[in-house]
Amino acid sequence: MVFSSVNFLYYFLPLLLIVYFAVPSRAKNLVLFVFSIAFYFYGEPLYTVLLIGASLSGYVHGRLIDYYRGTPRAKGFLISSIVVGIGLLGFFKYANFFIENINVIFDSQLGLLRVILPIGISFYTFQVLSYTIDVYRGEVAVHRNALDFMTYVALFPQLIAGPIVRYETIEHQLKGRTHSFSDLYYGIRRFAVGLGKKVLIANTLAEVVVHFNHADQASILFYWLAAIAFMLQIYYDFSGYSDMAIGLGRMFGFRFPENFNYPYVAKSVTEFWRRWHISLGMWFRRYVYIPLGGNRVNVLKLLRNILIVWFLTGFWHGAAWNFIVWGVLYGVLLLFEKLVLKENISRIPVPLRHGYVLFVVLIGFVLFNAGSLSEGLENIQGMFGLLGVPLATGESIYYLRSYGVVILLACIGSTPLIANTVKGLRNHAFMIRLSDYLEPAAYVFLIVMVTANLVDGSFNPFIYFRF
What we know:
Elements: H1 6-22, H2 28-43, H3 48-67, H4 72-106, H5 121-137, H6 146-154, H7 156-159, H8 167-175, H9 181-213, H10 220-251, H11 269-275, H12 278-289, H13 299-317, H14 321-341, H15 350-369, H16 373-383, H17 394-413, H18 417-425, H19 429-456
């Protein structure tokens, strides 16, 4: 089940809201847990057992670490929790990748495993690990209520595509949280915005990529059109999902961390990654980069630390060489900014800095979206006319005309321009009064438009479900 579906919008969510607000406070986590398991079971009936098992593993390991605190056994149980979590993730996500590469290197004929990647395993594994590590470090108190902890892991808004919510963030909200009409209204608004970003913009941009993949003849124009469309699609798809997750969390009294902050206005690659998938960057910083020594080390160790983090970042996204190269590419760029450009980057004219960031991000996403490293490199060659394809074809010009306005609007919407304009208008007394009527009507209209789109079409993928 996905948020952008009729079943979720008009059956699952209304029923959950009715039941949730009808039961007393002590039963609210139980309701959320049951509905979250049902939500996951709808799409992954077999692997629901894996989700419950990962939750129980985190709970039991946390209790054991706390019980044996100060003894070697506590560290042993921490290592055990990491082995279990990474082991399950490695088996389901990376086993076939390693088998394929062993076959290539040793010319062997090992058979691939018949496993399917469980939805959300990369996200809930990292949440469980953050909990056991923080318990071991003494940074959070162990959670003694198994149901509440399992609710944290299985909580459906952020279960399958983030943001990665660390236990520390909602520790007190699990035990007791407040509810209000203002929070409910904010949650509905935030959810509606994310839903619109996903269905009306991301899904439309995805059609450009599909048309490119099925084009009769490639052209330089079409390579660039598809690359730009995907770059915008993945932003609206993933940030839209994060908006919906944050909105849903607020409806039920949770305050999830922000995951995006207009990354395409960044003036350096370093800044871009402070604005894109913020929760993942913070996770790697807290549990990998800083334990390795962070930036308080010599140059060689700094090189090691950054390359390790970005190798793992790429590998986390997918078990393929194009993801690894994508991650390492960013590691190299970050090192370049940190060790070569340093403070000189601020002296470069702002438009050039924006252009540099957008260019490298665009090239990176061409690699990211490819089915393999060779396909990604071929697409990059096609963008620069190295494949002998024409500059443009009638087909590519047709799709440019068909989707040009959507791409332009998506570009504008990826900046703070619209939000700042609305904020400025609200400073006027007349607009404040007018917005009291127009704003609810606008959100209702948005949901109606989304519903019409969902009923009429069936193309509704979520990019980050792959990871």
